[in-house]
Structures are given as structure tokens and as C-alpha cells.
Here is the input.
Amino acid sequence: MDARLAALSQAVGKALAERGLMLATAESCTGGWVAEVVTDTAGSSGWFDRGFVTYSNQAKTDMLGVRTDTLLGFGAVSEETAREMAAGAIEHSRADWAISITGIAGPGGGSSAKPVGTVCFGWCRRGGTPGSETMLFNGERRTIRQQAVVHALEGLLQRLGA
Here is the structure.
């Protein structure tokens, strides 16, 4: 695994473990890459509960409770959807924190409003209000996806105050 990803996973694991917290992930364009990164860290069973790979809109609705109105009104790649994905991951797990990622990794699928590289993130703490952010990454598909994984983990570390 990439050294940067391994270091981020270890930092996230340490921060969660020190606080006695568990993590869940809800991923679309990254296809479970965040879950893969964190479970590659020894001892992650002590701080990682589960991951949801919800690539299709139906999966987002079925597994995470994302509202059809949200998907129709804002699109799958939106902060509104990312927030609902994160909240749904909390609701359908025993995690204390959730990360969600939904985006357009390319090479196709982009538009002028949402070009390739647009990725929306959600972070939610159990009992809290989900926060979100949109980033525009450059590069080819794998590079965009990797940047999204890094950003999601760094965003969680910030929110944990680590």
C-alpha cells in the first residue's frame, strides 16, 4: 500500500482507538478503497465497524436511506447526498463516526456543472449534524480516487482534533 495511505490509516486508527470510537464508511466512486486502506492496518477491528459500497443510486437508498428526492433534486454527486450517506452509515452501524464519498472519477460522466474530478464528502458523528465538502481533483481515474481517499481520511483526522 502507498506509504501516505498507510500513515493516514494508522493516524486515524490511533485517534479513534484513543477515544474509544468506531468508524464506518459509505463509498461510491472510491468503491471501498477507504475501507480497504483502514482494514490494511493491524488492529483495525478495534476501531473500524463496517463499510458500505453504494455505487448505484438504488444502493444508496436501500443500504443508507438516502432519499430519492435528494438524488433526483441534487444528484448522486452532491453534498446533500454525501451528508445523507454519512448519516445513513451511522444509522445502519454501531460506528461513532462515518465518512462518505460520492463523485465523478472519470474518464466520462462529467458535465460543465460537475466535471470529472468532482467529489463530495460527508463526515458525521453519532448524534451530530453531518458536515460536507466538495473538492475538484485533477488527474486520471485512479489518481482522482486516491486523492479522494486521502482527503476523506485527512478530513476525519481534522474533525477528531488529531
Notes: The chain has a mean pLDDT of 97. The beta strands are 23-27, 48-53, 97-103, 118-125, 131-136. The chain has one domain: 21-160. Residues 141-160 form the longest helix (20 residues).
